[in-house]
Design a protein that fits this description.
With 409 residues, the protein is an alpha+beta fold. It is 27% helix and 7% strand.
Length: 409
């Protein structure tokens, strides 16, 4: 009973003066006063309830937060991340709410640190710059902001934070019943297809907001060159298998590829050209279906993963410029190399005579394997290793003594 009485007495003494809670904090944090004059003030701040987020005495978390930063906001805003979300914004998933929001006050709605479009651009600069430069702009992007189509926190309905799946999202504004819509799509029921197969939703230099590189039949509205009639029960079906169909226009190129010594497996299976190319339009030259890190990585995951783990990044691999060294279709050389001599390929970018004086060339045999010549790949691996400079071993000594055994210690 005595202990309880003491506890109650201490508790009573520790109570703040009536109405002093927020005022007491501001007596030291006077520079915080301008925040209260902003257009949008966080509800706890407006109510001067600083202790709803901060511990006034001590804390295990920075800025005296009473919980981990990822948990403080979720204490009140649990519904921000939708249940069973198909996509979640990375800052939200990481609990970094303050990367977009000011936790106290802002002149922008939603306590955003900047206007929404400007804030999105701070991370997605390439998309924002492309949209700003585009001759043909998406009107919604001009009139409003990214949040017209994207949920900035997470989406239950679609990937890429879209507020609805395609084509339902696009059809909220674009009506298939409009005569102009049907004419632009030559009567094909594209309202049942993915609009982003052909169109860049952020803006384009091509009429109709088509991607930068457009397949000639599509540009000339000759869809029936490849597809059956739009009145058919299956209007998107193609007239023949992909390989033979592509050959009707690209016959000479296909014959040349198929007659080479080494043919890329991707072009001989049933999907043929469609394994790597889109038949309609693409952001990439040559109608490639995406960045080559992604396209090539569908089959060569081990190569991409090796490069990502490598302490030294080889630019052609890291940047998806596989065609710097390889012919993507077929070759007379092993591994689809453009040149038979791998050192000749390397010398396009690297002058090995300035790198070091070690002799290489077809006339010099590798002491470890007399059937191989000494070349750049005798010491390096183009796609990456776990060692610096794409080397085969951790140190130069380990590498050199594999051939120069007399210097082994």
């Amino acid at each position: 009973m005595i202990a309880l009485a003491l506890l109650l007495a201490v508790s009573a003494d520790a109570k703040l003066l009536p109405g002093a809670q927020g005022k007491l904090c501001l007596s030291c944090h006077a520079d915080f006063q301008p925040q209260l004059k902003k257009q949008f003030v966080h509800t706890p701040v407006k109510g001067q309830d600083c202790t709803s987020c901060h511990d006034p005495h001590a804390a295990r978390h920075g800025k005296l937060l009473s919980k981990d930063r990822s948990q403080v906001c979720l204490g009140c805003h649990q519904g921000v991340i939708p249940a069973a979300a198909k996509s979640t914004h990375k800052p939200v998933a990481e609990g970094a709410c303050v990367s977009c929001h000011d936790p106290h006050a802002s002149d922008d709605k939603g306590l955003l640190k900047k206007p929404a479009a400007e804030l999105c651009a701070s991370c997605h600069q390439a998309i924002a710059d492309g949209a700003a430069r585009a001759r043909h702009k998406h009107l919604e992007g001009e009139r409003s902001s990214c949040t017209t189509c994207h949920d900035p926190h997470g989406s239950q309905k679609a990937q890429r934070l879209l507020t609805a799946e395609e084509p339902a999202l696009c059809l909220q504004c674009h009506k298939p019943s409009a005569p102009q819509f049907a004419k632009a799509h030559v009567g094909y029921p594209v309202q049942k297809a993915r609009c982003t197969t052909c169109h860049d939703p952020h803006g384009s230099d091509q009429p109709g907001m088509l991607y930068a590189d457009v397949h000639k039949p599509l540009l000339q509205k000759q869809c029936a060159d490849c597809h059956v009639a739009p009145t058919s029960p299956t209007p998107f079906a193609i007239k023949a298998a992909p390989g033979p169909l592509c050959k009707t226009c690209h016959g000479a190129q296909v014959d040349r590829m198929m007659n080479a010594t080494d043919v890329h497996q991707a072009i001989v299976d049933e999907r043929a050209c469609l394994n790597c190319h889109t038949p309609h339009a693409s952001r990439q030259r040559g109608l490639v279906a995406g960045n080559l890190v992604q396209v090539c990585g569908k089959c060569h995951q081990d190569t991409i993963a090796r490069q990502e783990r490598s302490p030294t990044q080889h630019p052609p691999v890291a940047e998806g410029d596989c065609a710097q060294c390889h012919d993507m279709h077929s070759s007379e050389n092993a591994l689809l190399m453009k040149k038979a001599d791998s050192s000749a390929t390397c010398s396009k970018c690297h002058d090995y005579t300035k790198h070091q004086s070690h002799p290489i060339g077809a006339k010099l045999k590798d002491p470890r394997n007399p059937s191989l010549s000494l070349e750049c790949l005798s010491c390096h691996r183009a796609h990456g290793t776990e060692f610096k400079h794409l080397g085969l071993y951790a140190t130069t000594t380990e590498l050199c003594t594999k051939c120069h055994t007399q210097y082994t210690r």
